[in-house]
C-alpha cells in the first residue's frame, strides 16, 4: 500500500520529474547546471530524483530543489536561450538514413561505405556561410509564424585575470553567435564522429574484399590478402575473377558490389565459381552493427525476468532461440514428426481419435 501511495504522489508531480530529467539526463545540460552553481557560489550539490518506492527519498528530493532553486532557474533560462531544436532537426534529418541503415541485419560493408560517404559530403556542403544564411532564414520564418521571440546575445564573459584578463571575442548579432557557437561546432562534431566510427572498420581485409568483389582498383595485393586469409588457391581465384569480370562486362553490369552480386545470383553461378561464391558469403556475413545482438540481449532479459525463479540454462537457451527467431515461419507438423522420430521413449505422440 505504501508503494502505491508513493507512486500516486509521483504521478501527481509531473513538472518535477520533467525538469529533473531535462537537466540531469543530458550531460551537456548538467554541465551548464554545475557551471551556474559555481557562478552563484552555491555548494556543488546534485538534484535528486523522486523515488516511486521509498518515502524517505521525498524530503531529500525537495531539499535539493530548495537548495538549488536559483541555480535551476538560471540553468533553465540558459538552456532556453542557447538550445537549438530546429537546428538539430535540420542536421539529424541527413544522418537519419545512415542510422536506420546501420540497424539493418542485411547491411554490408559496400552499402554502408557508399551511404556514409554520401552523408559526409552532404554534411560538409552545409558548412559554409551560404547554407547557414538559408538555415537562419528558415529559423526566422518559423519563429515569426509561431510568434517566438529570438533569443538575445548572451552576456559577455570576461577572461579570468590568471589567463590574461580582458573579454572574449565580441559578437555583434545573434545570427553570428549561433553560427560560431552552435551551427559550425555541431556539424564538426557529427562529421568527425561519423569518420571515426567508419574508420574503426576500415581494415585491410574488408577493403581487399570490397575491391575484389566490385572490381574497383583490384590489385594483386588485394587478391593475395583475400586468398591468404581464407585459404583459397590464388591461381583458381584469379581465373574465376577474370572470367566473372568478363561476363559482367559483356552484360554491361556496372562495377559495384550490389549489381555484380545480383548478376551472380541471377545467372546461378554458384556451382561454376565456387571460390567467388565462398567470398560472397563471407563478405555478406560480416556484421556492420550490433543491432541484432542488442535485440537478442533484450529478448534474453525479458525471458530471464519472466521466469527468473524456475528457469535453467539449457531451457533458457532454447526459449531464447525461439523468441529471437520468432520471425521465421515454422512447419509445426515437421517439428512434431522430427521430435517423435528422435525420441528414445515410445508413446510420445498422442493418438487422437
TrEMBL record:
A GO molecular-function annotation: protein dimerization activity
InterPro entries, alphabetized: HATC_C_dom (IPR008906), IFN-induced_PKR_regulator (IPR052958), RNaseH-like_sf (IPR012337)
Membrane-spanning ranges: none
Residues annotated as domain HAT C-terminal dimerisation: 268-327
Pfam family, one: Dimer_Tnp_hAT
Coiled-coil residues: none
UniProt xrefs under PANTHER family: 52 KDA REPRESSOR OF THE INHIBITOR OF THE PROTEIN KINASE-LIKE PROTEIN-RELATED, HAT C-TERMINAL DIMERISATION DOMAIN-CONTAINING PROTEIN
Protein name in the entry: HAT C-terminal dimerisation domain-containing protein
Amino acid at each position: 500500500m505504501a508503494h502505491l501511495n508513493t507512486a500516486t504522489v509521483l504521478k501527481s508531480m509531473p513538472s518535477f520529474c520533467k525538469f529533473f530529467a531535462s537537466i540531469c539526463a543530458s550531460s551537456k545540460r548538467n554541465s551548464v547546471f554545475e557551471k551556474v552553481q559555481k557562478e552563484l557560489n552555491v555548494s556543488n550539490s546534485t538534484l535528486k530524483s523522486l523515488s516511486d518506492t521509498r518515502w524517505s527519498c521525498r524530503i531529500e528530493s525537495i531539499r535539493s530543489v530548495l537548495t538549488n532553486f536559483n541555480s535551476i532557474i538560471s540553468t533553465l533560462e540558459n538552456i532556453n536561450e542557447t538550445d537549438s531544436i530546429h537546428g538539430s532537426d535540420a542536421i539529424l534529418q541527413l544522418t537519419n538514413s545512415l542510422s536506420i541503415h546501420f540497424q539493418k541485419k542485411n547491411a554490408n560493408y559496400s552499402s554502408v561505405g557508399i551511404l556514409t560517404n554520401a552523408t559526409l559530403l552532404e554534411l560538409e556542403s552545409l558548412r559554409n556561410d551560404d547554407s547557414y544564411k538559408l538555415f537562419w532564414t528558415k529559423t526566422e520564418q518559423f519563429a515569426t509564424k509561431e510568434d517566438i521571440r529570438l533569443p538575445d546575445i548572451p552576456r559577455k564573459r570576461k577572461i579570468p585575470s590568471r589567463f590574461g584578463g580582458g573579454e572574449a571575442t565580441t559578437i555583434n548579432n545573434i545570427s553570428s553567435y549561433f553560427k560560431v557557437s552552435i551551427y559550425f561546432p555541431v556539424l564538426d562534431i557529427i562529421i568527425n564522429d561519423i569518420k571515426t566510427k567508419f574508420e574503426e572498420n576500415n581494415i585491410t581485409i574488408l577493403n581487399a574484399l570490397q575491391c575484389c568483389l566490385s572490381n574497383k582498383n583490384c590489385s594483386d595485393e588485394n587478391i593475395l590478402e583475400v586468398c591468404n586469409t581464407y585459404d583459397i588457391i590464388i591461381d583458381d581465384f584469379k581465373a574465376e575473377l577474370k572470367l566473372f569480370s568478363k561476363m559482367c562486362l559483356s552484360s554491361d553490369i556496372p562495377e559495384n558490389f550490389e549489381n555484380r552480386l545480383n548478376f551472380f545470383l541471377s545467372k546461378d553461378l554458384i556451382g561454376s565459381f565456387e571460390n567467388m561464391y565462398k567470398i560472397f558469403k563471407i563478405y555478406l556475413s560480416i556484421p556492420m552493427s550490433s543491432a541484432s545482438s542488442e535485440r537478442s540481449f533484450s529478448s534474453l532479459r525479458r525471458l530471464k525476468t519472466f521466469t527468473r525463479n524456475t528457469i535453467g540454462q539449457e531451457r533458457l537457451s532454447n526459449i531464447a532461440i525461439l523468441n529471437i527467431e520468432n520471425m521465421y515461419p515454422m512447419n509445426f507438423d515437421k517439428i512434431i514428426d522430427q521430435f517423435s522420430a528422435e525420441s528414445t521413449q515410445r508413446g510420445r505422440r498422442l493418438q487422437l481419435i
